[in-house]
Amino acid sequence: MKKIILFSLLISTISNIQAQNDTDAFKIKDIYSETLTKSQAYPWLYSLTTNIGGRISGSPEAMAAVEYTRQMLDTLGLDSVWIQPCYVPHWERGDKEQARIVNSKTMGTVDLTILALGNSVGTGNNGITAEVIEVQSLDEVEALGREKIKGKIVFFNRPADITQVNTFAAYGGAVDQRVHGPAIAANFGAVGAIIRSATTSLDDIPHTGVTVDSRYNKGIKEIPSIGVSTIDADLLSRILKQEKSVNLYFRTTCAMMGDKLSYNVIGEIKGSELPNEIILVGGHLDSWDVGQGAHDDGTGVVHAMATLQMMKVMNYQPKRTIRCVLFMNEENGQQGSTAYAKASNKNNEFHLAAIESDKGGFTPRGFGCEADSDVFPERFAKFKKFEELLSPYGLDLSKGGSGADISRLKSQKGLLIGLIPDSQRYFDVHHTASDNIENVNKRELDMGVAAIFSLVYLIDQYGL
Amino acid sequence: MKKIILFSLLISTISNIQAQNDTDAFKIKDIYSETLTKSQAYPWLYSLTTNIGGRISGSPEAMAAVEYTRQMLDTLGLDSVWIQPCYVPHWERGDKEQARIVNSKTMGTVDLTILALGNSVGTGNNGITAEVIEVQSLDEVEALGREKIKGKIVFFNRPADITQVNTFAAYGGAVDQRVHGPAIAANFGAVGAIIRSATTSLDDIPHTGVTVDSRYNKGIKEIPSIGVSTIDADLLSRILKQEKSVNLYFRTTCAMMGDKLSYNVIGEIKGSELPNEIILVGGHLDSWDVGQGAHDDGTGVVHAMATLQMMKVMNYQPKRTIRCVLFMNEENGQQGSTAYAKASNKNNEFHLAAIESDKGGFTPRGFGCEADSDVFPERFAKFKKFEELLSPYGLDLSKGGSGADISRLKSQKGLLIGLIPDSQRYFDVHHTASDNIENVNKRELDMGVAAIFSLVYLIDQYGL
Fold first, then answer.
1. What is the mean pLDDT of residues B217-225?
2. A176 to each of A140, A157, A184, A389, how far by Cα in Å?
3. Which of A177, B34, B301, B423 would you call most buried, defined as having the most Cβ atoms within 10 angstroms of its Cβ?
4. At B351, is the pLDDT very low, low, confident or very high (cuts 50, 70, 90)?
5. Is residue B166 within 8 Å of residue B427, measured between CB atoms?
6. Alpha-carbon span A264 to A325, nearest angstrom
7. Which of B365, B392, B443 sits opposite A200 (nearest CB)?
8. What is the DSSP letter of B98?
9. Is the pLDDT of residue A74 over 80?
């Protein structure tokens, strides 16, 4: 008898699990169907990119983006929408940059396609002219030493490793040159730096992106720094190999202006059962000034907004609080996410999960996650169980990085999750004048919304 | 003692398996690294699309494509390169098509963006004008019957189901209207047919594609047939809802010309150990006349060619015979694959595997396969074992369709395999004037070559 009861219980549990799985599978199918037909992500992105355009922190465009997204969230009937102040650095590019190889013996004078690096100082009105020295790494600058570097323009030319299938790994292996190269070069007496664009493409498109001052030695003045297209980097390198000495002229009038007041934009649906457990979905509002900031990170912004929009469309009342956070100043300071985490910690908030989309709006391939090591094994095990329901949509759940803005929430011991879209095309447009709406596909974008909503649904239903 | 020996044997077997797995993993990593840096796929595709362009069967461009690809294969040092004759239908589009709604009460006269359907007859010089009747399916034509259909232009307007995550499923659910709609309409007395483009995108781009004569009743004359953009299909449908009767004029001067002599292009590397076991890699050389036939199927052509190129680059001597087959006339007759299969069967050839790429040059997501039911379970089980080595590259191995050209080899009882690229963008360009090189990404294309070569490598090493 006992056996029969146990057996019945087992059967009933299995049936319940099966029924629940079927319900969830059906719900996720619904989420995809509704999102692919009713998502506002693309029209919102169209406005953000074409009416507003590039929106570097502190710019009028960044403020317009704050106001536009706040208003759009206001149309959704959320429980609350607010803006959260933060002071952001404001860097301006100034005049169109110029760079040319001067009086090469074999090629004469050759213009190069460049962009000033974000947060870089300018050359001043007259530009600078100096001999170029090519290096492959930060270490090589140190090895060459002050004698070889002093008075020169250092040319960092290590390419991204295009044999990496994950292009973020390729980018990650090269971008130290842009971030820290100018500082290291300056420490050894360089007067300027020119950096090969960190991209998987060989083309004539220069990439901007931030360079930081954290490694300048005390008393060392910042030096002007530019990014050069990969084709022109190859050209410059070829000429350097042929000729003993090559002089480069470049002129940039970029400068850091005073800090400006700006805002994160936030909207949320309050949880009906566990309102104190927050599930955050986010992207960053600011972008570089060249291009329209479409994939970086307009797509992340509208992924997050449309997740809440689709909850409303589908009349989904979450158990936990679902919060859309559009961070300001990810690109050159991360003052938005710093302010957000500070306020959140002060208010003793708990983010059970935070999902960031900042790797483009391409077909989603899955989610990566990380957490404080105390809680990671347990949370990852629960997260991984969702894979069965998500893999029919081409989504893998893996360990790995999450995102720059949400990483500041790690101490709250929730799970930090990054959307992983297909990465093959991302670095063709990343930080360039080509990061435009034309390079975003509506279906691929909406698939990202559906993927995020599906994951939020599962976390909301089952916790982590 | 016996136990120890058995145990040692077991350990040694496990070590061997592990070592072999490591070797294979290393080899596949190599294939990806070399392909991403040395593949000729993109430059070949660039020539095929921009120097030659659209290459409908029987056209001078199709012949130029035969000659170009034959010459390129000739540069690779293969064991043999040849062309295989076949007679192909030759359809010509004629003058730029015109279509307009005539004297609508609410809209006046409105031009529609259309393309004649492939293999369709034309309207004659004066065009046709008739009342339009909208239907959602072939069945609805039958249900309406002769009285309602006679003398009308039948407007097939069932949209592709964009909620399908796999866009090929969405396309497959709508394309019967284009393939058989005109014949069914004609059987009930229609004078013309206009078909909503089978695409997942709402835009102003009309799609062509074949319509076939197999369902015309005996004695029924073929009727002129056109495809209309989804935006204009919606417009026409709206006007039809508002007004009792709407007249449509359209003019096409397309026509079937006489059959022409054409060719498949074939190149192979002879196997060193099992030369009679053929592993085929293929795509189709012909395309539609609008656009450049980039994704359909220029990418499949260069996937196949570059697989053999990379074998030569890497000095890979296959055990089995690896054959690249570029089929003629996939789009509107499949005479190339018919001739190939006929000759192959006559020569008692055995294709252990055939891999077709005809779903675009986007990031590969895996391979699907099918086979004669006698051999499928065993072959699929062996095939599925390769997944462990391929999944780090984002590739899933599944049951499912293979490809139109290789399906004719089923009776040889090998495994028929189709490359499955990401499908989200494919039907934006499929059979349209937008199917151009600009919509192909070099890295995504090369990832396809690497995926195919990796699979060929594993089949060549381990059989099926």
1. 98
2. 13, 11, 11, 38
3. B301
4. very high
5. no
6. 7
7. B443
8. E
9. yes
Distance from the Cα of B361 to chain A's closest Cα (Å) equals 12
- Judge: domain A26-88+259-462, CATH 1.50.40.10: no
Determine the distance in angstroms separating the CA of B32 from the nearest CA of chain A, rounded to an integer. 7
pLDDT at residue B21, rounded to an integer? 80
Question: For tokens 């150990």, what's the residue?
Answer: B273
Structure tokens of B393?
A: 């590259």
Q: What is the pLDDT of residues A238-263, one digit of tens each?
A: 999 999 899 999 999 999 999 999 99
| Cross-strand partners of A116 | A226
Q: CB-side exposure of B126: number of CA atoms within 13 Å?
A: 3
Confidence at residue A401, expressed as pLDDT on a 0 to 100 scale: 87
CB of B425 within 8 Å of any CB in chain A?
Answer: yes
Round to whole Å and give the CA distance between B222 and A97: 63
What is the C-alpha separation between A232 and A158, in angstroms, rounded? Answer: 13
Task: Give which of B298, B304, B292 is closest to B406, Cα–Cα.
Answer: B304
Residue from A26, A442, A445 to probe the interface with B (highest B Cβ count within 10 Å):
A442
Of 3.50.30.30, 3.90.78.10, 3.30.360.10, 3.40.720.10, the CATH number of B94-253 is 3.50.30.30
Task: Give the sign of the dihedral formed by CA B129, CA B133, CA B139, CA B142.
Answer: negative
Q: How far is B336 from chain A (nearest CA, A)?
A: 34
Peptide bond between residue A405 and the one before it cis (omega within 30 degrees of 0): no
H or E stretch at B147: helix B138-149
Is the separation of the CB atoms in B292 and B31 below 8 Å?
A: no
Q: What are the C-alpha distances in Å from B383 to residues A6, A429, B81, B273, B308?
A: 41, 37, 29, 20, 21
Residue spans per domain, chain A: 26-88+259-462, 97-256
Confidence (pLDDT) at A268: 98
DSSP string, A99-153: EEEEEETTTEEEE--EEEPBT-----TT-EEEEEEEESSHHHHHHHHHHHHTTSE
Interface membership of B36 toward A (CB under 8 Å) = yes
Classified by CATH at the fold level, domain B24-91+258-462 comes out as Aminopeptidase (3.40.630)
Q: How confident is the model at residue B142 (pLDDT cuts 50, 70, 90)?
A: very high
Q: For position B375, what pLDDT does the model report? A: 97
- pLDDT the model gives residue B15: 63
Residue A29 has a CB neighbour count (10 Å cut-off) of: 16
Instruction: Look up residue A261 and give its two tokens.
Output: 């007041």
Site of tokens 């900042």: A358
**Chain A positions in Cβ-Cβ contact with residue B447 (cut-off 8 Å):** 165, 424
Q: What is the DSSP string of A233-246?
A: HHHHHHHHHHSS--
- pLDDT class for A17, splitting at 50, 70, 90? low
Fold of A97-256: Glucose Oxidase; domain 1 (3.50.30)
Instruction: Determine if the peptide bond prior to B297 is cis (ω within 30°).
Output: yes
Token pair for B434: 């937008």
Please state the ipTM of this predicted complex.
0.92
Q: Average pLDDT, stretch B5-28?
A: 71
- Whether residue B86 contacts residue B264, with contact meaning beta carbons closer than 8 Å, is answered with yes
- One-letter amino acid at B247 equals N
Using a CB-CB cut-off of 8 Å, the residues of chain A touching B443 are 162, 167, 200-201, 424-425
Q: In the predicted model, is pLDDT for residue A4 greater than 70? A: no
For range A304-324, the mean pLDDT? 98
Residues 162-181 of B with CB under 8 A from A: 162-163, 165, 167
Which of B422, B423, B440, B449 to mutate to probe the A interface, most A CBs <10 Å?
A: B422
Chain A residues closer than 8 Å to B167 by CB:
443
The mean pLDDT of B156-169, rounded to a whole number, is 97
Task: Categorize the per-residue pLDDT at B25 as very low, low, confident or very high, splitting at 50, 70 and 90.
Answer: confident
Phi and psi angles of residue B399, each rounded to the nearest 5 degrees, phi first: -75, 155
